[in-house]
Write a structure and sequence with these properties.
This protein is α/β, with parallel strands linked by helices. The chain has seven helices and nine strands; from the N terminus they run E-E-E-H-E-E-H-H-H-E-H-E-H-E-E-H.
């Protein structure tokens, strides 16, 4: 379970400012796969980064019960001068995974070819996301944070990624950000809408999607 306690985060001031969270208290229950919905710029990716610990809130606390992945697709986890393989081995040691097994898994899954052994700074955004996704899926987490990563690559790679994530979610939970309703319906069983600093949970995924789409039209 992940608990948000009086969480606040904002950027800028006045009309140009963005309020991501304003005194938000909420719980993400273990084993649930939650679609995180919200307008563009609402702060969904920032919220995932705060939950993972890669970004700090202005106020409040985040309590993590169990292991939580970094936001898959987020580039901040990797060192630019290390190769993809070296970054993989480094994160394996950090999370207590077998370095050889994880490197083999990522090499096979991410389909980076020779680029896997070249510096991360030379990667395209798509390659970076595939590396991040491969490492995350190769390490067992209680909760996976997924940020648009299933949109990476061609149709065959997207299907492979979604199928693997489905397999992982049989024993783990997730918080998923995606513009693809098909992906959300395939992976998630409930939802939360981030709107102007407030976070509202919905047990009914379809109700949340309908409300979110209605707000986008208003």
């Amino acid at each position: 379970m992940i608990e948000l306690v009086n969480l606040s985060k904002s950027f800028g001031r006045g009309k140009a400012g963005v309020v991501v969270a304003q005194n938000v208290t909420a719980q993400f229950q273990f084993g649930r796969s939650i679609a995180l919905l919200g307008r563009n710029g609402a702060g969904k990716s920032t919220l995932l980064q705060m939950i993972s610990g890669t970004q700090s809130p202005d106020q409040g606390r985040i309590i993590r019960h169990g292991t939580v992945s970094w936001p898959v697709g987020f580039a901040g986890s990797f060192h630019g001068e290390l190769t993809g393989a070296q970054n993989t081995r480094f994160l394996a040691r950090v999370y207590g995974a077998d370095t050889h097994e994880l490197q083999q898994f990522v090499d096979d899954f991410a389909e980076l070819g020779a680029q896997f052994h070249k510096p991360y700074r030379t990667y395209s955004s798509g390659m970076r996301s595939r590396l991040a996704f491969g490492i995350s899926m190769g390490i067992a987490f209680d909760t996976y944070l997924i940020d648009e990563v299933t949109s990476v690559g061609d149709a065959a790679f997207r299907e492979k990624s979604t199928a693997l994530l489905e397999e992982r979610l049989r024993t783990s939970g997730a918080i998923v950000v995606s513009h693809g309703k098909r992906v959300l319906r395939r992976l998630c069983d409930c939802a939360a809408i981030l709107e102007r600093g407030s976070l509202t949970f919905y047990d009914d995924l379809e109700e949340a999607i309908a409300l979110h789409e209605k707000r986008l039209l208003s």
